[in-house]
Amino acid sequence: MKSFIGDFLKKELDNFLHKNTQVADEMLRQIQRSERERKELAGIRKIAREHAKKASLHNKKLRDCKVHFNDEGGGERILQTTLFITEGDSASGSITKSRDVQTQAVFSLRGKPLNVYGLTKKVVYENEEFNLLQSALNIEESLDGLRYNQVVVATDADVDGMHIRLLLVTFFLQFFPELISNGHVYILQTPLFRVRNRQETRYCYSEEERLAAVTELKKPEITRFKGLGEISPDEFKNFINENIRLEPVVMGKDSRINELLEFYMGKNTPDRQVFIMDNLRVEKDVEEELIPKK
Known about the structure:
Blueprint: H1 2-19, H2 21-42, H3 45-57, E1 62-63, E2 82-87, H4 88-98, E3 104-109, H5 122-126, H6 128-137, E4 150-154, H7 159-175, H8 177-181, E5 185-188, E6 193-196, E7 201-204, H9 207-216, E8 221-224, H10 233-242, E9 246-248, H11 257-265, H12 270-279, H13 283-290
Parallel strand pairs: 2-3, 2-4, 4-5
Antiparallel strand pairs: 1-3, 5-9, 6-7, 6-8
Helix pairs in contact: 3-6, 4-10
């Protein structure tokens, strides 16, 4: 049986690849890339692991929780385990003070992460933040040991925050696509406005919600949130515990991931320049749209 199956697969696969040269070329590229990565990683994995182990003992980037997704016998609580990836210490400070320490952890980035599109996995070990994030998630080899069920990108709702979201999603798609395809990555939706009067406070996540709140509340006071750091820990409890809004990062079966990443994250091209110019919106104009002049 073994000989028969081996000969059959060899013959049929050989015929298939000769008839489908594009598939054969792509398989060859993937094999060659994997071989290069193995050779590159061979010399740095051990050093990177040692550095990550030492850093984890006094790493201020990760405020860990007590329950983890890979805990045996953890019950339904493990499904609530969440890692918030924040930009800067101000946002992480507010989330850390208001989180559920049993199931919610916080990982703080320092500035904008590296654009890893087109790079090999070697960069994950050479870049301290990526190496520590990989270690915190425990996904170096596979998702079997994943420590958090939900990996939440929690950035400001501005241009820089959107850019950081895109860079992190690129990182996961490039090196850990199963994290997204298995439904573990989310974007935290944070309020753009607080509309309140003496009787009631409402948090609004869109212009439509703001207009509705202004109409329904008498003589309201409107506050525009420009960053997560502006939201107090007491207010944060509403957003990450009681009324959390998470938008899943979805990768469809027919998604052309490589084409999308190349267009948005690859080398600058005339087509992308035209796309940017056609869709460019100045922050001042956006502000005027969101908060019209009285």
